[in-house]
Write a structure and sequence with these properties.
Elements (H helix, E strand, L loop, with lengths): L2 H23 L19 H8 L13 E13 L4 E2 L1 E11 L4 E14 L15 E16 L12 E19 L7 E2 L10 E6 L5 E18 L4 E12 L17 E13 L15 H9 L3 H5 L71 H22 L17 E3 L8 H16 L4 E5 L6 H20 L8 E4 L10 E7 L19
Parallel strand pairs: 13-14
Antiparallel strand pairs: 1-3, 1-11, 2-4, 3-4, 4-5, 5-6, 6-7, 6-9, 8-9, 9-10, 10-11, 12-15, 13-15
Helix pairs in contact: 5-6
Length: about 525
């Protein structure tokens, strides 16, 4: 190998290492092709459908573009005679076999020229004089991409690759026997390690071009600056088992001749974008895997799970412990009708949804077996009285027993606990009072408290009277002017009870608090 060839190889190796490092640092954009049937060939349609319906775990291979390339550069020969760099070019067509491997047929042309330091005459056809060569190369290389599959980046911006392949060199040598610049065809090719010779024949029938088989090895790097174009740098060594590419074989060397070709390449992807994706060596196949892990689309949009649910309660039969729940009944996570109080009677049959445990066992209607408390009995009786009164008003059969000209009678008493907040039972009683008041608009209601003879009790009675009036005014829209505020009317009674009395009297609907600083205390 001459000095130029060594320098070229060294420079390329340095550039290759630098660009390889850069290539692995690029952050490419990810892309999804698994759900686009337009880019899938007909022969892969079945695989596409099987993946779309989850019959297969592998997406179909997309149809990708061809890459057409033109390379121009420097060709040098590693032979027995000193030679100068020449010009060369190559045309290629590259097609992927997978995301890593691709095939690239090529057609190349190289030329060089050189001369020995002094003419050498060894007899026969081994004369060493000034020479020129022209070689046409045909063959196919297989290319392996090194950085397509990446774990922490998307699609690569650089394609780093190695190549190997086979081909032939059609080699023509011309020699300047007279050292006058007149180069003539050399026909004395030996026939061993060649396929044959072609071209114009000499008197002995030998052609002027020898056909020599060769093995190719090399590598390169390409930078993609658009979805269509990429620019590359490549070096390629075409090795032969032939020693006469320069028309001379030295007795001092047993090495065969070879070509080195270092080129700058411009490559173009051909194919319709809506029918083909970019060549697969530009697409990281891990994109799909990581996209699904980060934001599942295939499973979410395509996966259809059929699980029977005979009673339609939302719990599949395989997990349903009550497979015949009536329609519309609320169930728990095991498909059983909800039983809020745990009395064994589901809510949709239970006439007492919250039976106390001390009243268990409940009867068939879910009603507990415990005596009615005095408080509840009083509330129930008063509610029944109010309901009968309301019904009488609606039916026009109400007989007024007192209260002047007022039609409000049999109003309930509101029993408080330790504080002044209204219970739900109290609110239901007051709702019934509001209905009566709306049906008797000329009547007023006196709200009467029964405090003890101390400020704390008086303030508590005041707060309770105020909470009753506030509820009826704000929640039932009864005019505040229809109430008489009487938290301490001097009438004896239960300190925890506030009485309601229909009247046509006039009186204040609010009075000053007796001890505001004690308000809210139990």
């Amino acid at each position: 190998m001459n000095m130029f060839t060594k320098k070229t190889a060294t420079l390329f190796a340095i550039a290759f290492a630098m660009f390889s490092t850069t290539a692995f640092a690029q952050n490419g954009d990810t892309a999804k092709y698994w759900n686009n049937s337009a880019v899938v060939a007909k022969k892969n349609a079945q695989a596409f459908n099987e993946f779309a319906t989850n019959s297969s775990i592998y997406p179909a291979r997309p149809r990708d573009m061809w890459e057409i390339g033109l390379g121009v550069g420097v060709s040098t020969m590693s032979g027995d005679l000193r030679n100068a760099p020449g010009f060369g070019y190559t045309l290629t067509a590259r097609k992927s076999l997978s995301h890593i491997f691709s095939l690239r047929p090529y057609a190349s042309f190289y030329n060089t020229k050189g001369a020995p330091d002094a003419p050498i005459t060894a007899g026969g056809f081994t004369e060493a004089v000034a020479f020129k060569t022209r070689s046409w190369g045909l063959g196919v290389d297989i290319i392996g991409s090194l950085n397509t599959i990446r774990s922490y980046r998307g699609n690569p911006k650089f394609n780093v690759y190695l190549l190997a392949g086979f081909g032939v060199l059609i080699n023509q040598v011309k020699k300047d026997y007279l050292a006058n610049g007149n180069y003539v065809n050399w026909y004395n090719y030996p026939t061993f390690n060649t396929i044959g010779n072609i071209g114009d024949k000499d008197a002995q029938g030998r052609g002027k071009k020898a056909i020599v088989p060769c093995f190719n090895a090399g590598g390169g790097i390409a930078y993609k600056f658009s979805d269509r174009f990429n620019l590359g740098l490549e070096t390629k060594n075409s090795l032969t088992n032939y020693d006469y590419l320069d028309g001379f074989s030295s007795q001092f060397s047993n090495a065969f001749d070879a070509y080195w070709f270092t080129s700058v390449r411009l490559n173009y992807n051909i194919g319709k974008k809506d029918k083909r994706v970019q060549p697969l060596w530009w697409i990281n196949p891990n994109n799909y895997v990581y996209n699904e892990l980060n934001n599942p689309q295939h499973l979410k949009n395509k996966l259809k799970v059929k699980l029977d649910d005979a009673d339609g309660d939302g719990v599949t039969d395989q997990f349903d412990q009550e497979p015949n729940t009536p329609a519309g009944v609320a169930v728990d996570s095991h498909g059983r009708a909800i039983d809020s109080d745990g009395d064994g009677i589901p809510d949709y049959k239970d006439k007492e949804l919250l039976t106390r445990q001390e009243c268990f066992p409940a009867n068939a209607d879910g009603v507990g077996q415990c005596p009615e408390s005095t408080c509840c009995k009083t509330v129930r009786e008063q509610t029944e009285i109010l309901q009968r009164t309301i019904d009488s008003i609606k039916n026009g059969t109400l007989v007024v027993k007192g209260g002047g000209n007022c039609g409000l009678d049999n109003l309930p008493s509101i029993v408080f606990g330790s504080g002044s907040s209204l219970s739900r039972d109290n609110m239901r009683l007051l709702d019934a009072v509001a209905t009566q008041m709306k049906n008797t608009p000329t009547c007023k209601v006196k709200v009467i408290g029964h405090p003890e003879a101390n400020k704390a009790s008086q303030q508590k009675a005041y707060d309770r009277v105020a909470s009753i009036i506030k509820y009826l005014v704000e929640k039932q829209s009864i005019s505040e002017s229809r109430f008489i505020f009487a938290y301490d009317a001097g009438v004896s009674g239960d300190g925890n009870t506030i009485d309601l009395q229909g009247t046509t009297e006039d009186g204040p609907n609010t009075v000053p608090a007796p001890a505001q600083h004690l308000s809210g205390k139990k």
